[in-house]
């Protein structure tokens, strides 16, 4: 019987390794989505690049859940996820926006792209260092996937000519310098807004506490079904609108706290663990 023990141990070890690699496989797929988006932007296929970023967002939301379900969380996985996010939600959206319209603005164009890229890097670094002190119900600053969705959602919506760009450009041509279009100005504003909001202290709801509820009302499932139907009806408009609302929600909460005399920093602080009663 002892002859078969090493073989069984080897199989169990391979099984454990396979489970350990599973969440990192999702992270690698998300990284590929960001890299693919950059390549497509260089080839002028902006819609494909934008779609790849949204797919990377879905994959990025799964790797952590898979790691928790399989009990395979690790420091390596956390660091790898941050590096993947930097490519998919930091460098890729900035480069796509620059290639699409910011290039027309010269130095101001790459300045806006750099502000966004640097904001994403600082956002991810701060998240990793403050994860133990920030309440999980809120993000400190807009999360990088949401910022990336604002960037590529605007590009996707504009490339498919669902915005009256020609009419708007004609109306604003007299107000802008030669060679500068309204769409480039809007792209610049979105890039700077998203980049600076990522490094702000504005609280954004994380939706992480919703996962603790094992049962939800039937109405919630019904609304989710309606939401999926609305998104598939016209993805670029719906997705861009949703993330614009989310990108503004943090400032609404921030202004509400100011009006109420509360500090947003108090919302971000993790509640202290309850002290155990001392033994007699």
Count of strand segments: 2
**Whole-Å distance between the termini?**
53 Å
Which structural class fits the helix and strand makeup? mainly alpha
Largest sheet: 2 strands, antiparallel
Residue share in helices? over 70%
Count structural domains. Answer: 1
What is the name of the CATH superfamily?
A: CDP-alcohol phosphotransferase transmembrane (TM) domain
CATH class: Mainly Alpha
- What gyration radius follows from the Cα positions, in whole Å? 22 Å
CATH topology (fold) name: Four Helix Bundle (Hemerythrin (Met), subunit A)
What order do the helices and strands follow?
Answer: HHHHEHHHEHHH
The global form is globular
Which features would summarize this protein structure in a list?
single chain, 280 residues, mainly alpha, Four Helix Bundle (Hemerythrin (Met), subunit A), two-stranded antiparallel sheet, 2 strands, globular, disordered N terminus, disordered C terminus
